[in-house]
Amino acid sequence: MTQLTFTPVQDPDHIAELANFAEEIFREYYPRMLTSEKLEYVLVRTLSAGVLVGQIADDGYEYYFADIDGDHVGYLGIQPREDCLYLGKVYIRAGERGKGFGRQAFEFVKRRMRELGLHAIRLACNRDNMDALTRYDHMGFSIYGEENVDIGNGYELNNYLLEWTDDKEKEPSAQ
Predict the structure, then answer these.
(1) What is the pLDDT of residues 99-116, one digit of tens each?
(2) What is the pLDDT of residues 143-157, one digit of tens each?
(3) How many domains does the chain have?
(4) Strand pairing partners for 152?
(5) What CATH number corresponds to the domain at position 89?
C-alpha cells in the first residue's frame, strides 16, 4: 500500500495553497448535499486563506497536506482542546478515495492525539453525509449528540457529533 506523508501547513504560501486545494476538494464533494449558494457561503466562511490563517494563529489549529511523493491527495485540520483532539477537516481527492488513505489519515490523527496526551478524537459530521458517517462508524466512532449551527445568511449546519476514544477502540463493523 502506498504510504502517505503528512506535511504541516504553516507559512503563508502553503496556507494559500491549502485554501485553493481545499476549495477544489470541497467543490468535488459537497454539491450533492448543498445548494450552490450555500456551498459558496460555506467556502468563504470556512476555507479561505484568511480564515485558515486565523485558525492556525489564533485557535491552535494544525493543518497538514496528505501527500504521495510530494503530490497532494488530501488534507486534514485538527485542533487540540482541553479534553480531546478535534478533527475539523479530513478530505481526500475523489480519484484517491477507496485506497486506504482515509484510514492512514485517521492513524496519523490518533498518533497526534497520543503525542498531545489526549484520549479522544471528536468531530462534527453533516447528518446527510451518509458516506462519511458510515466510514466513521467503521473506524470506531460513536455518535454522542447533534448540533444545529446557525452560520448566518439563513444557513444552518445540521451535524452529528462523533467521538472516538482510545480506551474503547472497537473492531471495524462488518460491511
Answers:
(1) 999 999 999 999 999 999
(2) 999 999 998 898 898
(3) 1
(4) 155
(5) 3.40.630.30
